[in-house]
Structure formats: structure tokens, C-alpha cells
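Chapter summary example.
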Amino acid sequence: MPEKPKNENVQLPCRPNDNTNASGPPENLPISGLYAKFAQRAVPEELKTELHLPDGVTYGEALAMALFKAAIKGSVLAAREIRESAEGKASTRRNPEGPQKFELLVSYEPPLLAMVPKDNPDAPHE
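The structure predicted for these 126 residues follows.
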């Protein structure tokens, strides 16, 4: 079986620890950092032509355009992704008036009536 070539001298175009921009991608998220750097690259000419993209468009801009097109065509998932990216996840609904007391009425019907102990003060009167 042939030996795999050693890639010791191969340098990746995007390395997660090359963060010289203080506002750049965080170094503790290496995959996200690579995504952020890749999103800033220009789309190659053949892909740009295939997707009918304008000159100088980046992968990030192309992705945003694709998401907006999908959302406009009715994709709820694309619309949700855009909203959550802009506004964050929807918070859980809360009662603006605060907690309220309520009364719960329970009625027992056969065969459950037979399960209620006779000495229970909440037992229905026969």
C-alpha cells in the first residue's frame, strides 16, 4: 500500500489562529472563524457566472442573497434564519400582568368516582 504524502509544508489559506483583527472571528471557535474568513473571499468567476452574481461578490454576500431569495419564495426556515441572525432567537412569551391565581374545578365521573376515597373532603356528595 503506498504511503500517504506528508503535508507538513502545506499551508491552509485560512488558519483559525491568524486573528490579527481584534473584531474578527473568535479564536476559541476555530470552525466559525474559518467560516467567517471564507465568507470574506470573492466568489470564483465560474461560480459567479453560474449563479448570476454581480462582480466582486463575496461568499458571505452570495449566501445572504440566497437566503433572502429563498425567504422571498416562501421558505419559512430561511426567513427564520434571517430574523434570528438580525434579532436573535424569539424569547418565550410571558404574561405581562405577572402570575395570576385561578380556580380549578374537577368533576369525577365513573369509573374514576370509585377511586376517590369516601373520607376525602373533595369527594362528590351522592
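To summarize the output: The chain has four helices and no strands.
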